[in-house]
């Protein structure tokens, strides 16, 4: 195929072909209204329909240099995609009737020639092979979408046997191994978090204002006297120390890290359509329907304590076929996908009918697509494993830093030969704490002390993780070339004993 298609004006060429009457079925149906009929039979590369060797589609492919007879392999489906793409992109033609969408199907379409003033007086077709190839990709996409498990099409799954999570999380500030740090009863805190609903495509939904949170929230309640913790904050709530001193404090007191925060970014075929940060200590549910969970529907939609995050609308997707297929997937995302936080681990539970594939830190070495089985709990991320990987990397015992990003692909196999940007719906999930820790050691400080959400709560950190944070702090000090023998900030802040265990 010619890699450099010729510059051809579609309107005069196609009108001339209609006037020529040399192609079966291509004819004027209303000359006064400039409306013509074009045959539109189904064809594939291996099963061309009758007369495909003498169609207007083949003629257009030859005219634009996209098909050289005797050199290129005949591909009637691609010829048709090329002409359809050119017609759809042209302002000089308007589709009046599409019989291929009727029941029963009528194998033709009717177009009207439009008298539209063109910019610079010229409009060429055949110059954008990438656009036509995308049309062709989208045309072939529907049969490959993984909308449902065949075994579950006829009969819905029984309700998921959720544990009584409300009893597991009676206190969202569970301390686990830190009973000595258990906060006493505190007065009214910040207002309850409002569940996230739908947000407009292309717009950023409200993201928690970390600086504002820090300004109105003390690091510790005043009534909480805990030996060996950080000094009370000055008025204004934000640390007065420069960022150089604030960094090791994150390691000394890991409760300052936003350990339960997740950054979620939505993309529709590589185009960002929404992003937000959730701070729910239990996790969230990604879904599309308007059915929100209630206490009576926990078995179907998950616990009500989860953040409810609705997929962005696909209405602003410019390509009609892409918008149609995206809607097809969104329609079967009603029950959604649960991202559950347990301790410092992240799990996924797929409730929706649409198949979901993923890659991430806990996926291991993948030889092919990695699906999430329906209503099976899958571990996505472990902070303990991440900390261990970061320690090994800082010691030079691992070639690369540990991964922390999680990617989901809805309705299409992943990973495969296609890049993520070609997938209809993808979601990226980033544990904020992991990103901050990696930035801390890489020197890419795109954040500041004011941007870190200070948490009153003390997460349920295991003894091993406390030791990991202590070791990371020592590695950070070594990285900063601190004087040998100088007392570490960890020892000064904790009375030389580290964090009590």
TrEMBL record:
One of its GO terms (biological process) is positive regulation of interleukin-12 production. Keywords: Cytoplasm, DNA-binding, Nucleus, Transcription, Transcription regulation, Ubl conjugation. It is found in: Cytoplasm; Nucleus. GO terms for cellular component: cytoplasm; nucleus. Residues 7-115 form the IRF tryptophan pentad repeat domain. CDD domains: IRF (cd00103). The keyword Transcription regulation applies. One of its GO terms (molecular function) is DNA-binding transcription activator activity, RNA polymerase II-specific. SUPFAM superfamilies: SMAD/FHA domain, Winged helix' DNA-binding domain. It comes from the Eukaryota. This is Interferon regulatory factor 5. It comes from Pseudonaja textilis. The lineage of its organism: Eukaryota, Metazoa, Chordata, Craniata, Vertebrata.
């Amino acid at each position: 195929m010619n890699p450099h298609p010729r510059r051809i004006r579609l309107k005069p060429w196609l009108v001339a072909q209609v006037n020529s009457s040399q192609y079966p079925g291509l004819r004027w149906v209303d000359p006064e209204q400039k409306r013509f009929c074009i045959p539109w039979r189904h064809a594939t590369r291996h099963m061309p329909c009758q007369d495909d060797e003498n169609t207007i589609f083949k003629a257009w492919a030859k005219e634009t240099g996209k098909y050289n007879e005797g050199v290129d392999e005949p591909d009637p489906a691609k010829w048709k995609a090329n002409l359809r793409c050119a017609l759809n992109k042209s302002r000089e033609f308007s589709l009046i009737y599409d019989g291929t969408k009727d029941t029963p199907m009528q194998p033709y379409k009717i177009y009207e020639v439009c008298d539209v003033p063109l910019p610079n007086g010229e409009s060429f077709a055949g110059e954008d092979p990438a656009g036509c190839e995308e049309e062709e990709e989208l045309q072939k996409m529907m049969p490959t979408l993984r909308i449902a498990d065949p075994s579950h099409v006829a009969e819905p799954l029984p309700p998921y046997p959720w544990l009584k999570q409300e009893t597991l999380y009676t206190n969202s500030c569970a301390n686990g191994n830190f009973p000595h740090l258990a906060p006493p009863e505190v007065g009214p805190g910040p207002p309850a978090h409002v569940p996230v609903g739908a947000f407009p495509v292309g717009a950023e939904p409200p993201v928690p204002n970390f600086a504002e949170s820090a300004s109105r929230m003390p690091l510790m309640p005043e009534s909480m006297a805990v030996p060996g913790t950080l000094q009370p904050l000055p008025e204004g709530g934000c640390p007065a120390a420069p960022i150089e001193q604030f960094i090791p404090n994150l390691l000394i007191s890991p409760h300052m890290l936003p350990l339960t925060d997740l950054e979620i970014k939505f993309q529709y075929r590589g185009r960002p359509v929404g992003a937000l940060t959730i701070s729910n200590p239990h996790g969230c549910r990604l879904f599309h329907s308007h059915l929100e969970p209630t206490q009576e529907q926990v078995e179907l939609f998950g616990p009500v304590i989860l953040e409810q995050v609705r997929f962005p609308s696909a209405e602003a997707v410019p390509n009609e076929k892409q918008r149609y297929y995206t809607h097809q997937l969104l329609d079967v995302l009603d029950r959604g996908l649960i991202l559950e936080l347990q301790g410092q681990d992240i799990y996924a539970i797929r409730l929706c009918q649409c198949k979901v594939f993923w890659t991430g830190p806990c996926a291991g070495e993948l030889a092919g697509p990695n699906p999430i089985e329906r209503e099976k709990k899958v571990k996505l991320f472990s902070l303990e494993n991440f900390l261990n990987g970061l320690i090994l990397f800082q010691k030079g015992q691992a070639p690369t830093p540990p991964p922390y990003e999680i990617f989901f692909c809805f309705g299409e196999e992943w990973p495969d030969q296609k890049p993520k940007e070609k997938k209809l719906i993808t979601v990226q999930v980033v544990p904020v704490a992991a990103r901050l820790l990696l930035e801390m050691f890489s020197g890419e400080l795109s954040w500041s002390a004011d941007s870190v959400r200070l948490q009153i709560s003390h997460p349920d950190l295991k003894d091993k993780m406390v030791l990991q944070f202590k070791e990371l702090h020592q590695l950070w000090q070594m990285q900063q070339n601190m004087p040998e023998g100088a007392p570490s900030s960890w020892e000064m802040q904790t009375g030389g004993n580290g964090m009590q265990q």
